[in-house]
Amino acid sequence: MAFERVCARSDVPEDGSLRIELPDVDVAVVDFDGELYALEDRCSHADIPLTDGEVEEFDGAPTIECALHGSCFDLRTGQPTNLPATEPVPVYPVRVEGDDVYIDLDADVDAPLAAATH
């Protein structure tokens, strides 16, 4: 695993998201009820930033909603929870150390992830 620091914990809004632009991918770091998640900041249906949407619970799952067409993506798995999106987005492991947030872009993005808490 190759965790890299992407932001400060205090930079991520409570029950909100922060867009991180990295050389190979843009990542959404998302706070849901105090837990952090990271996923590719790109709707698999409309190819727009997920960080433009709301962080909310959808059918019991922590999600981020695409602002354009309303598809929600499960923050734990990247799977869409409703149409029109049908393809998942990659998710990444998150680690919090003090006020530093780290993600692992080299991890197996097909496996469900646990959230990082602080």
UniProtKB/TrEMBL annotation:
Keyword Nucleus among record annotations: no
Gene3D superfamilies: Rieske [2Fe-2S] iron-sulphur domain (2.102.10.10)
The Rieske domain, residue ranges: 4-103
Gene Ontology terms for molecular function: 2 iron, 2 sulfur cluster binding; metal ion binding; monooxygenase activity; oxidoreductase activity, acting on paired donors, with incorporation or reduction of molecular oxygen
Pfam assignment, any one: Rieske
Keyword set, alphabetical order: 2Fe-2S, Iron, Iron-sulfur, Metal-binding
InterPro entries noted in UniProt: Rieske_2Fe-2S, Rieske_2Fe-2S_sf
SUPFAM superfamilies for the chain: ISP domain
PANTHER family: 3-PHENYLPROPIONATE_CINNAMIC ACID DIOXYGENASE FERREDOXIN SUBUNIT (PTHR21496:SF23), FERREDOXIN-RELATED (PTHR21496)
Protein name, per record: Ferredoxin containing [2Fe-2S] Rieske domain
Species in which this protein is naturally found: Modestobacter italicus (strain DSM 44449 / CECT 9708 / BC 501)
Source organism phylogeny: Bacteria, Bacillati, Actinomycetota, Actinomycetes, Geodermatophilales
Name of encoding gene: sufE
